[in-house]
Write a structure and sequence with these properties.
The chain is built from three helices and 13 strands, in the order ββββββββαβαββαββ. It is an alpha+beta fold and 151 residues long. The chain folds into two domains: 64 residues, no CATH class; 78 residues, Phage tail protein beta-alpha-beta fold (3-Layer(bab) Sandwich), CATH 3.55.50.30. A hairpin with a 6-residue loop joins strand 3 and strand 4. It is elongated. The termini are far apart.
Length: 151
């Protein structure tokens, strides 16, 4: 490609796109930028990714993960949430952004859950399904969702 496409994030990090399908996530409250490569090629701060890899670019440079759930990372473009053995805090961060809620925790955040949900599904339905596992309990007051992991 004679003229690469370069994505420049607010924090100055760069993702160079070289004819590809990829996902990148760069929220202000995150510690860095994650980029997942589906196919093709991207270069993240000088590090070339192969399909199925994810780079995390933060203050300490770039780290590459070859054991990434690509389907979960690109599920949003198909209108889905996909959680495969996903930590509750990671799940709640996605729900917090999508449903415009504030999430607080009572106790541990160390539980992993599974599920695939339409992004059109009401939040209450997703929470009911997760509660049916008996691993977690939710309480909603206004825009605040309190998450309690069952001991």
């Amino acid at each position: 490609m004679s003229r690469p496409f370069i994505v420049v994030m607010e924090n100055g990090k760069k993702v160079e796109v070289l004819g590809t399908e990829f996902n990148t996530s760069a929220y202000k409250e995150d510690a860095g930028v994650s980029t997942t490569l589906v196919n093709g090629a991207v270069k993240v701060d000088g590090v070339m990714l192969r399909p199925g890899q994810q780079a995390f670019s933060g203050e300490n440079g770039v780290t590459v993960n070859s054991q990434v759930d690509v389907a979960a990372n690109i599920a949003w473009k198909n209108g889905l949430f996909v959680f495969n053995d996903t930590r509750i805090d990671v799940i709640m961060k996605q729900l917090e952004r999508w449903y415009d809620i504030d999430v607080v925790y009572e106790g541990s955040e160390k539980v992993h859950l599974n599920g695939t949900f339409s992004r059109n599904m009401p939040l209450s339905k997703i929470l009911d399904i997760f509660e049916s596992t008996k691993l977690v309990h939710f309480k909603i007051e206004g825009r605040t969702l309190t998450v309690t992991v069952t001991p």
